[in-house]
C-alpha cells in the first residue's frame, strides 16, 4: 500500500499564512495540516508515502526532514493543477495507491475504510456534506459540484449545478486505485490529447474530477465510498475561522 499526497499548490486564499510556507503547512487546530495527514496515515500502517511538492518546496522538505517521505516536484505548480501534480509521481505508482489532497483533514476511520476497500477505483464521498458547507457559505450551491450514482457506480462528478437533486454527496479529495488498475489509469492519462479542453480548462490545468469523469466514461467503473462527515477542507482564511468540526 502506497500513498501520494498532493502538496504543490500555493493556497492563495490562505494568504498571508502561505506567504512563507506551502498551503499544507497551514495549521488547523494548532498543528500543520500535513502533520495531521501523515499521523493519520501512520496510524493506519501506511508508511510508504510520497509527497508531490512545488510552492515553497524547500520549506516543506525541511519540515519533514528525518521522515521516510519520498519527494517529487511539480516544477510548473503555478501553471498546472492537481492531475498534473499527481502524475509527477508516476514512477511511484506501482502498488495499491491512496491519493490525498493536502488541504483536508480526516479521521482515521475514513482512511481505514479506504485502505480496506477492494474496488479498483474508489472515491470517498461525504453524504452529510451540507452540514460542513453551511459553515463555510450561505450559498452552498455556488461552491459544490454534481455527484450522481447509478447501480452502485458514479456516473457524474464535478459539474456545476443549480439543483440539490444533482448532489448525492461530495468528493472530499481522497481516493484509491488498486494495483491491478493503476497501469491502465496511467496509460489512459498519457493517451489524453494535450490540446483538448477538459471542463473548460487545458490539459495541464485539468481538475481531478474531470479526470475521474474521463475514467468513468472511457476506462472503468468508479465506486463511491460513503462517509458521513468526519473531515474538513481548509481552503481559505474563512474556513479556518468558521469550521467547527473537530477531526
TrEMBL record:
CDD domains: PC_cytidylyltransferase. InterPro entries: GlmU-like, NTP_transferase_dom, Nucleotide-diphossugar_trans. GO terms for molecular function: nucleotidyltransferase activity. Residues 2-118 form the Nucleotidyl transferase domain. Keywords: Nucleotidyltransferase, Transferase. The keyword ATP-binding does not apply. The keyword Aminoacyl-tRNA synthetase does not apply. PANTHER family: N-ACETYLMURAMATE ALPHA-1-PHOSPHATE URIDYLYLTRANSFERASE, NUCLEOTIDYL TRANSFERASE. This is Phosphocholine cytidylyltransferase family protein. It comes from Vibrio pectenicida.
